[in-house]
Amino acid sequence: MKKIEHNELEWRDNAPVSAHFGDVYYSAENGLAEADYVFIKGTDAVDGWRNKDHFVIGETGFGTGLNFLATWKAFRESGAKGRLTFISAEGYPLTEKALEAAHATFPEVASFAARLRAAWPPAAPGFHCRHFDDGRVTLLLLFGEAAASFGRLRAKMDAWYLDGFAPAKNPAMWSDDVLDQIARLSLPGTRFATFTAAGFVRRGLIARGFDAAKVSGYGRKRERLVGAAVAPTSLYSKDVSLPEWATLGEASDGPIAVIGGGIAGASAAHALQQRGRAVTLITSPTAQQASNVPSAILAPRFLLDDQPAAEFFTSAYAYASSFAPFARAWSEVPGITMLPKNTKDAERLNAIASHLGWAADWLEEAAEGLNLLRGGSLDTAMALRTLRTSLSVHEMHVSKLERTNNGWAMETDEGTMIEAAHVVLACGLDATNLLDTHSRPTVRPNRGQVEVLDSQQVTAPDGSASFGGYLTANTNGIRTLGSTFDRMDEATLSAHAPKESDRRQILAAYKAVTGNEISGDAIMRSWVGLRATTPDHLPYAGPAYDGEAARRVYARLGIDAKTCGLGAPPSLTGLSILTGLGSKGFQYGPILGNYLAAGLCGDPLPMPTDHIALLHPMRRLIRDIIKGQSSSDN
User: pLDDT grade, residue 9 (50/70/90)?
Assistant: First the structure.
């Protein structure tokens, strides 16, 4: 996907104008009243969400966000008991500064607008999910060309706001491909409203199974279109299907147990609870969790390409940077300085800045390296406490899983049995130990040592620094310097003993890049933990599977990797996996917890569909089948 370009804001008769399209974002008369009249009333949205637990609105063109702000305000004031998800495609997002100028005219939504801007993502291609009102209102922004973005979306809309500038100004937003996606993402009864009355738009919607009628327009505009899907039919012909094995099953009704009290498990349990599910978080009192590192840094992994993995890394960083449960855990000095290790690395950082093209409120080039203005260092204990605050937490160690007629039974070391309709394995290295040998995705222990420093004794700059290693900013009186990455054949108790050689290595790496030396008086102690890592350095998030059955079902892929029609994957119903986050748990955990919860609850998927295979626990097994390898080759 190509780099996202910002749209510049101009003004005409008190109305903001897109410099790219030469058209107004909203009426100069009263944009807020226009949004209410054309879209909220045009789709009968208030009556619609009163009668639903979860109401989903799709929009073609986010623009200034005024439609979203008006809808959010109306949703709150209506006293609705359920949830609202607002999904909007935007190819040319405005900067936070431009949004502020556009919002200044409307004091009625000032508090809503300020919260939107505070959560505004960088101009990174892909999906950006944001939550408001304790998760009752979700905004899913799709940055990129509309047809392609909607083509990667898994959702069903209750209503559509078709608002993509005038068809004459922005014909791509009203193309057949976009209309096909609107039909694909609609259900019988899905309503739409639009400011335009263009005949080809009306005919295109009718051809795709909608009824469409002309009604009075807003202000000086004579007519507009409203209607509903009767029997929506997509004429979309491009094959965007996923591999047969890349599926996400929904959770059955009933209680959900999340095994693992670290950032992965806590994020998943939090996201499930926000969706109204009864959740129990089970944490082992003896587990050596990597999430217990004294402080963490959000140092993103940027790639100089446009593959799905690159989108995942940037979206995960941006999501964690605005994750509400982290609000009180950030260090006082925000942001991160990315320092080059050498001349070649400096060239790489310059290329990253050019490739991203982010606005100055997210990224700026420094005299040496890059400054990322969002995110930074976290007090991990505070972050985890906040996530767990409203959860039901049980301290016990689960040693065995057994299927039951209604889900799964978990046996503890004490012999106690706990049952749940669905279980999420989010306990790091222990996650795969609860599965059959043939059904374990490959997870490897990686030892990491960190030096814990007295922040008052450290003479380095106050902010967070990333340089291959990292130095966190002050969190709760300490800074941490790390880290080593030692792959191990197995997780042993001796792995948790600090090594003096590792301390010397960590200190030397910091001095080599910065020229600064950490005095011995500043070092309080060493911390050692084991991370769960995967061979391709991407986490696992999705359904557990029956490995032996999967090898039988997909054996023909070893002859022809493009073989289709082999059947649905033999997933272990009622069991999900979330592990392999490596050293980036606090960066990946929040977005993956939200993704997994959305899939289990049948919500719109907050990440593109091509990320399902990217993160699927079965992906390495499929790769091995294609390459003719046995499970022992892992």
Answer: confident
User: Omega before 483 cis (within 30°)?
Assistant: yes
Is 465 a member of any domain?
yes
Q: What is the pLDDT of residues 259-282, one digit of tens each?
A: 999 999 999 999 999 999 999 999
Task: Report if residue 16 sits inside a domain.
Answer: yes
What domain range is 451 assigned to?
329-378+447-530
Compute CA distances 260 → 316, 403, 448, 573, whole Å.
Answer: 20, 19, 19, 19
Instruction: Note whether 353 and 391 are same-domain residues.
Output: no
Give rounded-to-5 percent helix, strand, coil for the chain: 35, 25, 40
CATH of the domain at 284: 3.50.50.60
* 555 & 604 share domain: yes
Q: Are 95 and 182 in a shared domain?
A: yes
How far apart are the C-alpha atoms of 542 and 550, rounded to whole Å?
15
| Residue of 480, 476, 537, 550 whose CA lies nearest to 510 | 480
CA distance 474 to 479: 5
* Cβ-based neighbours of 236, under 8 Å, separated by 6 or more: 151, 177, 180, 181, 183, 184
At a CB cut-off of 8 Å and minimum separation 6, what does 450 contact?
A: 293, 294, 480, 481, 482, 483, 506, 526, 527, 528, 529
Flag whether pLDDT at 2 surpasses 90.
no
Residues 6+ apart with CB under 8 A from 31: 15, 25, 64, 66, 105, 106
- The Cα 385–Cα 262 span in angstroms is 10
Residue 314 located in a structural domain:
no
CATH of the domain at 504: 3.30.9.10
Q: Domain check: are 81 and 185 in the same one?
A: yes
Domain boundary among 462, 497, 530: 530
State pTM to two decimals: 0.94
Backbone angles phi, psi at 276, to 5 degrees: 90, 10
Q: Give the whole-angstrom CA distance, residue 355 versus residue 335.
A: 20
Instruction: Compute the distance between CA of residue 482 and CA of residue 380 in angstroms, rounded to an integer.
Output: 15
CA distances in angstroms from 50 to 56, 75, 134, 185, 584, listed in the order given = 12, 9, 19, 21, 40
Considering its fold, how many domains does the chain have in total?
3
- Report if residue 266 sits inside a domain: yes
The answer to whether 216 touches 224, Cβ cutoff 8 Å, is yes
Assess whether pLDDT exceeds 60 at residue 488: yes
Residue 608 amino acid letter: P
Examine the domain organization and report whether 142 and 37 are in the same domain. Answer: yes
Phi-psi map region of 89: left, alpha, beta (phi>0 left; psi -120 to 50 alpha): beta
Where does residue 618 fall: left (phi above 0), alpha (psi -120 to 50 degrees), or beta otherwise?
alpha
